[in-house]
């Protein structure tokens, strides 16, 4: 009996503690609370109360190759993530055939309808369909069910991104190959795309936007498939533009330290506002081993810079960042 008490009182809590991580290590294996490498590629973050939900492409080995999966992880500190399951398990919804594509999930919470609305890039194997798919759930951790797919405002749409402005307005960012990078509002129920706010005539994937210090910053990558390239940014006083020229966010020879943008996460802390660059380090032949490059960026007065990746952590309450 004493032996069991000892295990319960000392060994188990110690084990739990030892799994707790203190630092974010960009580019390294990122274990979830079960010790498995996080599978949330091309992802997005939705904050509900104090909890951050990280949605992304589930690419672990051994999945049913006919289906596509979106995973969900929950965290209160952005460092330790609990796997909440594959919240979308989709069978080819539009008869797209072999090697159909479902990428870059982004979830918006609609306070009026109390629905979680997920947007995805839906495509066939040749990436010619170029649509978004919309799925909904009553809870952040699923299950999500498929609603429909369409081309936003009739335009081609491949990589998508999400942006929530400070007043809560949600925007969909989408790459329209013939024309460029579009930003558009959603309908009241979030199930559709309503109005275009701007078209930035740049051919960019991995689109992301953040509002900081009275300026909008848009970033994206060049079109080089799974290979990294120098990601760039532009600024504007209004989301509608005009937008400045695009400039490098990091030394171009590093190709964004081998990564591709997916989101810019703003943490409005009590003491500091921190913006985190979230990106994927893709491993196209071993996608389950693709990594994440999350780093706080230097931002302000029209400048944005991604410092050399190194271990760091953020206190989500104060917004302050520390480096190891
Ligand atoms: C780049 C995109 O950003 C990815 O999401 C994926 O679609 C690859 N291209 C496919 O080559």
TrEMBL record:
Keywords: Glycosidase, Hydrolase. Pfam families: Glyco_hydro_43. It comes from the Bacteria. InterPro entries: Glyco_hydro_43 (IPR006710), Glyco_hydro_beta-prop_sf (IPR023296). The keyword Hydrolase applies. Belongs to the glycosyl hydrolase 43 family. This is Family 43 glycosylhydrolase.
